[in-house]
Write a structure and sequence with these properties.
alpha/beta, binds adenosine monophosphate
């Protein structure tokens, strides 16, 4: 299954993509995670991306298209893949089409803006393995410590309230039109992402069950 996972920032893409990856045994690639790793390492890519990310804006299309092209041409993706956070604009979707990759479904997690703001302010990320938590909805067993690898949790700089509002308006203006793009291809699936993690996962798995062998 070649899957695109869409949704506003904080809609739960990272959480659901990890669950789908586990169940289907296919890799999940997050352009956000790749860009954050590049920023941390101080690479040229990271330097090019940092100011956009800090401001809650999209990194230029050609930068992310290059990353995804490299990734999809690697051996890891032969049995399928989940793209978490790519494409995020019509030119990115067109570039993906031009790579000749067949996409089976574009799954959009639907969450109201008010809920997004509430979620992002409580989000905590593992500094080592990238696992995602929420202080109320998905707390770690021990405060500020990762359940998976026991490293410290942190709050992403771009989860600050003002940046969240910028990211939401970018989402509505530039990313949301992709729903029409994939609906026109007949592969858009919208899933309610408002409820708790388990309920959303159940809806996601039900929606994807038609792709099971
Ligand atoms: P995410 O972790 O998916 O919320 O992404 C964090 C940030 O990385 C975004 O706010 C953008 O600045 C950048 N980013 C991630 N994916 C993309 C993409 N496909 N196109 C442009 N910028 C991206």
């Amino acid at each position: 299954m070649n899957l695109i996972l869409m949704g506003a920032p904080g809609a739960g893409k990272g959480t659901q993509s990890a669950k789908i990856a586990e169940k289907w045994n296919i890799p999940a690639v997050s352009t956000g995670d790749m860009l954050r790793a590049a920023v941390k390492e101080g690479t040229e890519l990271g330097k090019a991306a940092k100011s956009f990310m800090d401001a809650g804006q999209l990194v230029p299309d050609e930068v992310v298209i290059g990353i995804i092209k490299d990734y999809l041409s690697s051996d890891k993706c032969t049995n399928g893949f989940i793209l978490d956070g790519f494409p995020r604009s019509i030119p990115q979707a067109e570039a993906l089409d031009a790579m000749g990759v067949k996409i089976d479904a574009a799954l959009s997690l639907e969450v109201a803006d008010e809920k997004i703001v509430e979620r992002m302010s409580g989000r905590r990320i593992c500094s080592s393995c990238g696992a995602s938590y929420h202080v109320v909805y998905n707390p770690p067993k021990q405060a500020d410590v990762c359940n998976v690898c026991a490293s410290a949790l942190y709050t992403r700089a771009d989860d600050a309230a003002e940046t969240v509002l910028n990211r939401l308006s970018t989402y509505h203006a530039i990313t949301e039109p992709l729903k029409d793009y994939y609906a026109a291809k007949g592969i858009l699936i919208c899933v309610d992402g408002q409820e708790d993690v388990e309920d959303t996962t159940a809806c996601v798995m039900k929606a994807l069950s038609k792709f099971e062998a």
